[in-house]
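Entry:
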Amino acid sequence: MKNERVLTIALCIGICMLFAYAGSLFTPVAGSWYYTTLVKPPWNPPNWLFPPVWTVLFILMGVALSLVLDKGTEKKEVRQSTLLFGVQLFLNLGWSLSFFGFQSPLAGFIEILVLWAFIVATIISFAKVSKAAAICLVPYLLWVSFASFLNFVILRLNS
């Protein structure tokens, strides 16, 4: 049973890290003309901060998913929670595609608002299954809240 639990955690983190990697494919490399030419607020975090923050958040997301799955996929609330989690995971990837891939702060802002709503819905759903899983997603919600505001300010500064 212990080995099965470790495997579930590893797979859940692995799935989340796969999405993190996929999103990074749209993220500009250092010195990229698109991101460097955008006007950003003075409180914009330094570029080096984003990879470690997102790595921690994706690991927490994987742990949260594993905690929900531990409750049994035969339960309706587990399946619903997992579906919401999957949607927000794709929306997370969609933000990278919108903001960086399409080079559109507007599309990114619209996408991140939808993502934010799905993160909230996922947290509420996870809380019904596992309070610990819901708590694991709170830092993610906080970071995406900050990122939403940052995206909005970048949109305004570059319009």
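The chain has a mean pLDDT of 95.
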